[in-house]
Amino acid sequence: MRYFLDAEFNGFGGELISLALVPEQDGLPPFYAAIRCDAPTDWVAENVIPVLETRPLGREEVAQRFSDYLTDDPAPHLVADWPEDISHAALLLITGPGRMHPIRSIRFELVDPNIYGFGISPQFPHNAYHDALALRDAVLGYERRMA
User: Fold this and answer.
1) What total of structural domains would you count in the chain?
2) Chain centroid to CA 96: how far?
3) Count of CB atoms within 10 A of residue 123's CB?
4) Which of 23, 39, 110, 131 has CB 3.0 to 4.6 Å from 6, enough for a Cys bridge?
5) What percent of the chain has pLDDT over 90?
6) Are 134 and 122 within 8 A, CB to CB?
7) Which of 88, 61, 95, 92 is nearest to 7 (CA)?
């Protein structure tokens, strides 16, 4: 199944703060989790932390929940519009040197938001869940127009 991915992180190249996966199909539960951030940048403290809409957890717990969410899908396909989002999702699968959470197969796709007409603002900017919803709506809308 295809999932639309967004992540928020602590400044450019910073640690993961929140990550969301929104399934392509309506009615299926999304994945949304946040990780504690002890030293947010000023911008993140003002724009990301206040709109998390979930209690931050430890990184290991978020990684386990992420893995559990994807476990029953034999071939998850994660679509993102920024390379760092993909990087953070992939890093959540690593449990230690040479070890990772058991994912049978996973595919990542990077799309250019300019192609999909991203003048669309999510309802709550800088919230990974709402950004993932906006990405899904933009990509599916574009695909319907091109069909």
Assistant:
1) 1
2) 21
3) 10
4) 131
5) 82
6) yes
7) 88
pTM (global) more than 0.70 = yes
As a whole number of angstroms, the distance between CA 35 and CA 18 comes to: 6
| Inter-residue long-range contacts of 8-15, CB under 8 Å, 24+ positions, other chains counted | 8/44, 8/48, 8/126, 8/127, 8/128, 8/131, 9/84, 9/88, 10/37, 10/39, 10/40, 10/41, 10/44, 11/41, 11/43, 11/44, 13/84, 14/41, 14/44
- The neighbouring-strand residues paired with 26 are none
Strand partners, 109: 79
Helix/strand number for the chain, H first, E second: 4, 7
Q: Phi-psi region for residue 13, left (φ > 0), alpha (ψ -120 to 50) or beta?
A: left
d(CA 10, CA 88): 12
Structure token pair of residue 64: 């386990």
Query: What are the tens digits of pLDDT across the range 82-118?
Result: 999 999 999 999 999 999 998 889 999 999 877 766 5
Q: Read off the CATH number of the domain in which 74 is found.
A: 3.30.420.10
CA distance 113 to 136: 11
Segments forming the whole domain that contains residue 17: 2-146
